[in-house]
């Protein structure tokens, strides 16, 4: 087993070491090859000879060599190991990698989120991406430790349940042998049962909700950090405990994750000595005064309201976190305890951080008769959860609890724009691991690979993949006109990117325009100061592009000829084109097409 890691080399100056890891980057200086070796602790520069030309990015290798101090002029302050380097004596390739679709050596992977997630097994290796989950590990570990210090006991809650804890339709139903069951949307019932066993409990749990949502704040599967405890004298003890935990988490992240925070230029949220606390109606009055938008009769805060009240909290209280309490009973689960001094409102609360909800909690109803009545009012058949009811039949102390969303906390700490970035393997209505749409695309591509050798398509695919661009590849019957192509693709004629090979002053060029328009040759010649312009013959098209006329893709750059694109094509959100064959098409967003081809944009259609 590997016992020496990259960061350990810092204390091994002058010694011979054996390091194992992945090739992060290679810089070829002819007789000297510099290799950046990466493992989970960091990156170290390796100085090698010409033999190192055999290795490629992401190869798993062993390198044996002497740890040396770098010259002062060569120190890299961006690396923990920036003052040392490994002078290699020998190396061994343990596992050869295929060519990665992304450049992993960049400080930031500048690709779209869908691409980042579609290549998750690879992108998670990137130091900036893995940093997210080092912080998440600290958050979860700190949650555990903070509660253990208070005498709480951890338990494991089931994922398959007979009854939903909160009612509603946002649950995944599963066939459980010959019966119906559900995937847990909350460990709530089991937390309360366990209060009757250990009094103070917590669980780190996967919860699943069938929410048909693709917002930046929601997932179908999340990791929740739940706590529940009994013998409370006031519901405010719950808020006090939640505040203790989140501050404990911040302290541990501050101690353990400065490097990871630095990669995102992020700092911990500002928190006052005591996190501000407002009732919902008080918050709504403040929002109305600040924005002029009257939402004082709404039962909850909307996302823009959460952002606004967090701004107020920072400006007036010096805190980026704020507790909001006393939500209407109609907005909270049936088991939530109503405030006897504020009828219709509950002893419940949310913790908002940097404009997003991080936690929800409250006191629970422990009187069996009241619980049954509340369930009946919501038409929830609670009798299906017999174990839950047993807990109240045989005595339950005053109790309550709360649930943090671990992804929400990490998203807030690093100020990520989308919660999917804070989930190792995010699930939503569009993906389980890989996007459902991409699975179909991959099937088509693999089918074409078996049937046809298409080097032009492979060039396009490589270019798009390298730039992190999503596209849809479609195989269809042979088409020879723009009208036939539009029909078989299911697109409008104007969405077709018609690529024409022409000779301008005897040099081949490519003109691309919507398939329903024609080239205005006079305007093109005038705009670009061209004396002679003519259409290429079929033989000339084949010579320039190596494909048949009518199947030329609008990628002048892969044929090393100047590409002109008519501006009217950009009026389409999505464009389509033949990809080197009459039986192969690609659909792509226009802005991504422009990004991939870097054309000269003009106005030459009619």
Describe this structure in words.
- The chain is α+β, with helices and mostly antiparallel strands and 606 residues long.
- The protein has 3 domains: 6-95, OB fold (Dihydrolipoamide Acetyltransferase, E2P); 128-428, Bira Bifunctional Protein, Domain 2 (BirA Bifunctional Protein, domain 2, 2-Layer Sandwich), CATH 3.30.930.10; 435-602, YbaK protein, CATH 3.90.960.10.
- It has 17 helices and 27 strands.
- The strands form 6 sheets. The protein has an 8-stranded mixed sheet with strand order 6-10-11-16-15-14-13-12, sandwiched between helices. Strands 1-2-3-5-4 form a 5-stranded mixed barrel. Strands 23-21-22-24-27 form a 5-stranded mixed sheet, covered by helices on one side.
- Helix 3 (127-148) crosses helix 5 (236-256), helix 3 packs across helix 11 and helix 7 (280-291) packs across helix 8 (303-317).
- It is globular and about 90 Å long.
- The model is unreliable at 442-453 (pLDDT under 50).
- It catalyses: tRNA(Asp) + L-aspartate + ATP = L-aspartyl-tRNA(Asp) + AMP + diphosphate.
- Residues 188-191 are annotated as: Aspartate.
- Residues 133-426 form the Aminoacyl-transfer RNA synthetases class-II family profile domain.
- Catalyzes the attachment of L-aspartate to tRNA(Asp) in a two-step reaction: L-aspartate is first activated by ATP to form Asp-AMP and then transferred to the acceptor end of tRNA(Asp).
- Its main location: cytoplasm.
């Amino acid at each position: 087993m590997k016992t020496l890691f990259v960061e350990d080399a810092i204390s091994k100056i002058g010694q011979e070491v054996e390091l194992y890891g992945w090739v992060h980057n290679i810089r070829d200086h002819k007789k000297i090859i510099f290799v950046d070796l990466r493992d989970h602790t960091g990156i170290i520069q390796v100085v090698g000879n010409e033999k190192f030309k055999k290795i490629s990015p992401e190869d798993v290798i062993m390198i044996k060599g002497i740890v040396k101090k770098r010259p002062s002029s060569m120190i890299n302050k961006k690396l923990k190991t920036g003052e040392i380097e490994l002078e290699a004596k020998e190396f061994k390739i343990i596992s050869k990698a295929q060519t990665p679709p992304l450049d992993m050596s960049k400080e930031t992977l500048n690709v779209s989120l869908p691409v980042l997630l579609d290549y998750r097994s690879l992108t998670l290796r990137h130091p900036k991406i893995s940093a997210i989950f080092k912080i998440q590990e600290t958050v979860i570990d700190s949650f555990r430790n903070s509660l253990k210090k208070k005498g709480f006991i951890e338990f494991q809650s089931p994922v398959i349940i007979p009854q939903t804890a909160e009612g509603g339709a946002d649950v995944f139903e599963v066939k459980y042998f010959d019966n119906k069951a559900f995937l847990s949307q909350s460990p709530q019932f089991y937390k309360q049962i366990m209060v009757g066993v250990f009094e103070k409990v917590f669980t780190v749990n996967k919860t699943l909700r069938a929410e048909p949502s693709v917002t930046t704040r929601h997932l179908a599967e999340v990791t929740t950090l739940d706590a529940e405890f009994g013998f409370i004298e006031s519901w405010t003890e719950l808020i006090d405990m939640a505040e203790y935990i989140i501050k404990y988490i911040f302290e541990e992240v501050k101690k353990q994750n400065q490097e990871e925070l630095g990669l995102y230029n992020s700092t911990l949220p500002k928190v006052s000595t005591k996190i501000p606390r407002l009732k919902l109606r008080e918050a709504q009055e403040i929002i109305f005064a600040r924005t002029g938008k009257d939402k004082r009769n709404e039962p909850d805060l909307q996302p823009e309201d959460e952002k606004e009240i967090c701004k107020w909290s920072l400006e007036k209280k010096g805190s980026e976190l704020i507790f909001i309490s006393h939500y209407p009973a109609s907005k909270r689960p049936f088991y939530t305890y109503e405030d006897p001094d504020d009828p219709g409102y509950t002893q419940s609360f949310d913790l908002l951080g940097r404009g997003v909800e991080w936690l929800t909690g409250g006191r629970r109803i422990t009187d069996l008769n009241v619980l049954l009545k509340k369930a009946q009012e919501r038409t929830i058949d609670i009798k299906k959860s017999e174990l839950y009811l047993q807990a109240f039949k045989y005595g339950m102390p005053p109790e309550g609890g709360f649930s943090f969303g671990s992804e929400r906390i990490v998203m807030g700490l690093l100020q990520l724009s989308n919660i999917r970035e804070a989930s190792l393997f995010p699930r939503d209505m569009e993906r389980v691991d890989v996007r459902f749409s991409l699975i179909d695309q991959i099937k088509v591509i693999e089918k074409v690979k078996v049937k046809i050798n298409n080097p032009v398509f492979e060039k396009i695919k490589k270019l798009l993949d390298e730039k992190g661009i999503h596209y849809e590849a479609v195989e269809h019957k042979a088409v020879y006109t723009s009208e036939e192509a539009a029909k078989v693709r299911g697109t409008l004629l104007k969405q077709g990117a018609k690529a024409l090979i022409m000779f301008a002053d005897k040099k081949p060029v490519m003109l691309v325009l919507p398939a329903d328009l024609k080239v205005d040759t006079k305007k093109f010649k005038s705009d670009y100061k061209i004396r002679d312009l003519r259409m290429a013959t079929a033989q000339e098209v084949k010579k320039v592009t190596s494909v048949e006329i009518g199947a030329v893709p609008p990628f002048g750059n892969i044929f090393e000829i100047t590409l002109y694109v008519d501006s009217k094509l950009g009026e389409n959100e999505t464009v389509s084109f033949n990809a080197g064959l009459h039986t192969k098409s690609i659909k792509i967003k226009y802005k991504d097409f422009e990004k991939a081809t870097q054309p000269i944009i003009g106005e030459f259609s009619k």
